[in-house]
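Q: I have 59 residues here and want to know how they pack in 3D. Can you give me a structure?
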Amino acid sequence: MVLTVKCPICGRPVTWNEESPFRPFCSDRCRQVDLGAWAAESYRVPSRQEDEDGGEDNR
């Protein structure tokens, strides 16, 4: 069985094997676009927010 995934940048199908050197990306261009987004801090990991008193929000 051949595993195929979508490129996270453009959505093209990518075969997941050694013949796809940029996996999970379809190309070096999409890999570089993703790296640029990380470098520009476009991706964010959610964190806990503090309430107005300076304590942590316990939601």
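Q: Anything worth noting?
A: DSSP finds one helix and two strands in the chain. The first strand starts at residue 4 and ends at 6.
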